[in-house]
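Why this split exists: single-chain examples teach little about how molecules sit against one another. For that reason, every record in the complexes split bundles all components of an assembly together and asks for one structure covering all of them. Below is a record exactly as it appears in the raw files.
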Amino acid sequence: MKGDFHARVISNVSIARHVSDISLQLSLDAGEIDPKPGQFAHLSSGGVFLRRPISIAGFDKKNSRVRIIVRNAGIGSGAIASLIPGESIRMLIPLGSPYPLDLFAETAGVKKICLIAGGIGAAPLIFAADFMREFNEKKGKEIFSVESFIGFRDKISSFGLEEFERAGTARPVIGGLVTDALEKSLAHDRPDAILACGPEPMLRALQGIRGLNGIPSYVSLEAHMGCGVGACLVCSCRIATDSGHTDDDNVRYRRVCRDGPVFKLSEVVFG
Amino acid sequence: MMTLETELCGVLLKNPMIAASGTFGFGEEYSELYDISCWGAISVKGLTNRPRSGNPPHRIAETASGMLNSVGLENPGVDAFMRNELPRLARQGIPIIANVAGSTIDDYRESVGKLSDSPVSIIELNISCPNVREGGVQFGTSPERVREVTSAVRSCTSKPLMIKLSPNVSDISEIARAAEDAGADAISLINTITGMAIDAKTRRPILANVTGGLSGPAIKPVALRMVWQAAAAVSIPIVGMGGIMNADDVAQFMLAGARAVMIGTANIVDPMAGPRILAEIENFMQENEISDIRELVGGLRTS
């Protein structure tokens, strides 16, 4: 179930340079929603025409509270990042496909999940880390073993390390490439799956890591969006395919908002 | 007793709101949010005879009070539409309008021929898509070509035929008259206005297609003017659109001469625009003591 709800800002804390950690209270009619890590919300904001797609960084089901972590990257995201407690916005939630954590949870044995985050891309992965930690706590045993590589350009841009540490092992990379750190680690330790979110150069580099061959890897993509629900077809990305209606080179346009934002890393064709 | 009913070339609409082509897909996505049978009618995503994958991304740019798109008619083709989408849409119990684009007159004829045996209520001929090199707009910018494509399609269908006009013309009146003369049952206007956006830092266009179609409140004054001019030029029904965001906008278009309206970009900004604007129209009618919405049509007072 999804819907367009009123959301009232409960708190807004600056957690890194230009980055706000915001808690929003959904209106009562939002009782049925159950957002999953990887999904996003489409937020109206003052001063700009279109809504802004923002990753969900956490959800408190009992209190219908949504956590978002927003970087002030322009007028639209800036307006959201500077919301003050008491203010209300519209929020269409939850949208898009989640990381397949439910699927992993169903398979037997301990799952070694590796999270690869770059910059504000850490936001949905914080939700994933919390989700897996809570899942382990609920089951009373380790179902997910979580290792996170979290890259930031500098110290004052970094955030979320505590959440990643609480879920497992966290390897912050400040000013370097998370993909280099991952590549070294892969030499002696192979995870069962990779979940990634970050800037396109990071995702491209990830795609180039040979050691990842055979490891199911999922990335969450970013795109300028219109409707956010899959109707307007403006947020297309390129996905490799060998079927369907395509252009010449076996590339198919898929909607980031509805077919994604989570895709298999191996299928994404970067522009 | 209040009535919102209106009629379009023999097709009864329970209210004058039509979901505009290209912003509503085939209705499926919005049906997850509300009962889409609240619309007076739905005009589906522009269809071509063969499937099209559309233009490369980026396909959207935000503007002051509006947006540019350059989707480029991505669609599964008429056959797949009739097989996979239309049966579900037809069950909504409201008129379905098939928006048809093409690159040749034969394309248009073939697509419309197939749709003529389907449950669609109206064919909307898209001769105004600005985003494909040879996808319609070349038929929409001169009266001769409008006449040519309209009469060619007219002769292959008995379905009501509505021509969707481009605003990228110097004289909308003569274009509207050409459509009427060639046998159109209605016209809809305006499609998007060709525009572009530039990133000054990278010195590159924002849209991969360089140019795109401008929509939203930014184009409403132009749209109102063109609907008003077209209404003076023809006697067939007019469907007005361009930046409608609320009931007051709907009333403005109807006063300018529109028998019904299309709502497009509003759906993108507000996923609940359909039911919201419908409720607003009812309030507007009550507040202004309007019992029959048709009394607004062409009711502009200019003296």
